[in-house]
């Protein structure tokens, strides 16, 4: 075995291959047995025909879990695998609890990604030939890029580009990717042969290719999916298409879907809204609203004027406005100048009755928002560098000072706002520092000092905390020295905005004396009404569509879901409040989403999907048709028998018969229906839905909380009766691979198929269970998967070997190790059951595999040392229980053990999860742990005694040795006292507060008490129960137990380095606190002298924690 830069390399795969052979065998058996096909109790059953869903669930418990169905533009990767594993483990466990546990899985094909990729391939085939044989070399591509760059520079009237200095603009990430620039290359990276890539130019081919691979990959890891219920989305499946049409109709009828102009993230290239699922990057980003301030240019700077004069058709009768985008229109009273960047090129755009100066990017956004004369036209009349505008005289609206100018600001960026920034130094820390710098370094910036020397920082907002010059006060308090101090300025900006908005009062203007949070909207409305401002939107961050387009914001006539409607939102909150969310962070994330979520475009014109029933020129977007598919799972297997709905299902119902009335009957329990479908068939469909619903848990990545999962809640409460609202959502963290972020560009990436091929199914599942269960990022560690191979194989070999033996002990159990192992197995079983119930699979794995095996190993070694060997009944119990405990996580291995080694005739998948047959006797567990602890103390004492100190050790292992065990019969008085103190502080929640603790401890006791309490805290932190930690009495008779240990020779067997024949004496002394003598437990002799030079060992001997002395015999 060796590590490489691309992951773990397995050098010897014989063990893995043996386990994989078992897995393949049992996957075939399960398929033949239809193990995972789960149905509701038949409606034809006389016993259940009149039962309500609640009565059915009582008599026939069920569990239904699902994951966000994967998108069919590629194969499943490790991240999908991680989410799938959570469903798998829950289904496996609930199945063993006697429930009809259903795991359905569909294939998402809606939206634009598949069609966009297919269209890219069409273009590439046109460019490079059917098999891409005419693809230019990388050198040829570089030459083409150089020519484009030179042409662009010429158009901008720039100097000639030096070809020797040209560099292709390739990011580090792109450089690491190598090829992959074209869609056909990406397809080849998915493992598709070059000559087959052309088939994917037809979008329909994707829908036929990837779903089968998805099923194959899921089956390879042993997924318990009922594949009868699988389907693809879009109108390719006419049954699902009818279902989504019903959903849309019901939501429109109830006023949930509306029509109107909405600001929407938009792809000009695709000609439609770009929703989250359509994005290459920028998921979750929404339109940001600004106020566009029109700042009149009263006299252009000389250079700018010359350039304008050179434009023959420039209309000099029109006014020219710089357009500044601001979030704070109420601060316009404090304007002292307006900033542009000397490094940015600005366009002068003909806006009808005037000219606007802004970046082309900003004007492009405006052209799609009914701000400009012509939609989508954003060609500038002329382009001028920002440096040529510096010195331009301006007249900003509401400004209290005159003779203001355009000035330079180096930190202005072209990708945010309009590239024009109005300066309000009283309330913007950035503006304050830039203006100060301009005043101090006017020559450096190439400006006339007269332009800035008399500019005043005017107070416009009063605040309690920072006075009436918030920015100035903050910059001074935070010791900000320069406009380039970006970190401090960003923090100061946040503080200023929050303080001004929430506690500020207007100190000037029409709304003087009003709170800023009230005056802001009034002033904005006034400025828009008088024509000095307008509403402007742009994406709040970079959004790149799947087609590679840099998206904008467009004002679109569209159908949208009104998630902001208050009564609907209240129902969503009610549902959320009653759901099991498994982590408080998840609840907080949902509540945050509900706070901001308002409108969501439901339609698009490009892509795959279902047509809006009332407006068929539009398609239902991909996040809106994937909100209640879990309900469709419940009936799909009765309607059709293939992914595509081509083959009619067992009820003989055709897709065209699935009308809205039919879906109302099934999902909303409405009995008024007009249909030619048999009532028995309708009742069978309703029975399936009402039995498996409500959905017990939906499992997805945490990144889907702010869209998919929230829409899932909203749509369920809109369409289904309350008793069918979802019961739980589990949000996973992202999956890292070998403690690094998964990334195709770095090579740290694995598909599900690659994981299973490398480690096999069960070892992979164990590593997935061990990866983590919280909303924090989890980690798939290949070394854990590899270690699991060895662990399972060794367990298999041991089980096969020990079951073949005929020398295992029978008869009565011994009092210590047999009884202890039996009870400890029961204890671990109960604890493992609890962790599975809590969906803490990492803990369940630790207990049910690692701790369970450790218990077996200790038992095996302990009874071997006593010369008795293992008890047959306990060996059989261990093997069967181990298989049962591990079944949800490693089912193939466990079914092999259950059927082939233990000779059961049915699958372990149908077995009940083990439970202790009687309450666990804690005294037996404590007794066994006492023995372990004593043996550990002996080994530690031995190690210290043999450790060389200044060239010699305290004990010579070659000479005769005596072991003395000191057993305290009671706690010292001071320990009893402070044990009670610690117990009280723990109940008050202040035990970890040393300042409180020290007030309870006498000064003279401090040195001994603090270490004592520290040990108590360590035991609590390790998970030991408080009632055990703070109990000063053992649950067992310590003196009787240690006498039994003495008799079975377990004390001598604990030493490791000292030969057993060198142990010539062993004594166990019982010592009372403060006594100067001891009693031998071995000889019963009383009044024995205490060991000399062992004061510390004597003091440390307390009930349940004996001390050990090892010395040479003189």
UniProtKB/TrEMBL annotation:
Q: Which reaction does it catalyse?
A: tRNA(Leu) + L-leucine + ATP = L-leucyl-tRNA(Leu) + AMP + diphosphate
Question: What's an example of a GO molecular-function annotation for this chain?
Answer: aminoacyl-tRNA deacylase activity
Signal peptide location in the record? none
Which residues belong to any copy of the Leucine--tRNA ligase RagD-binding domain?
Answer: 968-1021
* Protein name, UniProt field: leucine--tRNA ligase
The text of the family note is: Belongs to the class-I aminoacyl-tRNA synthetase family.
Q: What is its EC number?
A: 6.1.1.4
Pfam families attached to this UniProt entry: Anticodon_1, RBD_LARS1, tRNA-synt_1
Biased composition (Basic and acidic residues) is annotated at: 144-165
Q: Where is this region: Disordered?
A: 132-173
**What biological-process GO terms show up in the record?**
leucyl-tRNA aminoacylation; regulation of TORC1 signaling
Task: Cite the Methionyl/Valyl/Leucyl/Isoleucyl-tRNA synthetase anticodon-binding domain residue spans from the record.
Answer: 818-941
Indicate yes or no for the key word Hydrolase. Answer: no
Q: Which GO cellular component terms, listed alphabetically, does the Swiss-Prot or TrEMBL entry include?
A: cytoplasm
> Does the keyword Translocase feature in the UniProt annotation?
no
Q: What are the Aminoacyl-tRNA synthetase class Ia domain coordinates in residue numbering?
A: 54-121, 205-781
| Keywords, ordered alphabetically | Aminoacyl-tRNA synthetase, ATP-binding, Ligase, Nucleotide-binding, Protein biosynthesis
| Alphabetical list of InterPro entries matching this protein | aa-tRNA-synth_Ia, Leu-tRNA-synth_Ia_arc/euk, M/V/L/I-tRNA-synth_anticd-bd, RBD_LARS1, Rossmann-like_a/b/a_fold, tRNAsynth_Ia_anticodon-bd, Val/Leu/Ile-tRNA-synth_edit
Organism this protein belongs to = Hanseniaspora guilliermondii
